[in-house]
Specification:
By secondary structure, the chain is α/β, with parallel strands linked by helices. It has a single domain, classed as Spore Coat Polysaccharide Biosynthesis Protein SpsA, Chain A, CATH 3.90.550. It contains eight helices and nine strands. The strands form three sheets. Strands 4-7-5-8 form a four-stranded mixed sheet, with helices on both faces. Helix 6 crosses helix 7.
Amino acid sequence: MVPAYNEAARLPTTLPKLAQFCESYGSVEVLIVDDGSRDTTAGIVQEFAARYPFARLLQNPGNRGKGYSVRHGMQKAQGDWILSTDADLSSPLEEVHKLIAAVDRAQASGAIGSRALDRSLVGVHQAAFREWSGRIFNVIMRIATGLPFRDTQCGFKLFRKDAAEVIFSRQLLEGFGFDVEDLLIARIHGFKVVEVPVRWDNVEGTKVGALTGARAFWDLAVVRWNQACGRYR
């Protein structure tokens, strides 16, 4: 499942990689969730889906945010295991094998890719400000929520279908703070999620501006308030 907003420049590179990877599996689906793009994202995906029956375009009712897109895709996915990955494939698709091996070892319901557990796997770094902002965010996140993860914001995540049904039906945030919310909901409902170091390369053209990044800090307070109010039960 790939959330996409104005990704017409990236998709011609990303979609063939998805096709090549998926054709080696017998039963698979690819969902591209268009978040009200103003460019030709939807048309590119429709052409791709016409060539590959395992691909499908989902469209949000306007531009709702990455959190809405991920929730939409997770709730529509049919597979036993659902992978969410960013449109830039900053973590190569082959890294999913690490997530699968980790959930098997730990008998977990999900796994999240991490840039923080082994920073030697980061080939191309973000700008220093963004990287340090991310580190500070995760320190505050651990204090605020008690979650143990070192990197909640990497967009490479795998969930078992039954866990995804519980988690994403309770997700309330639609912006970039949704990752923390989903992991907290998983803990509340007893789903074990493991953190796994993965290869990762920054790709220029991020949709996360300074204001959006700052909103993620506010979202931590919103998540704690929602938890206190019992909204994730």
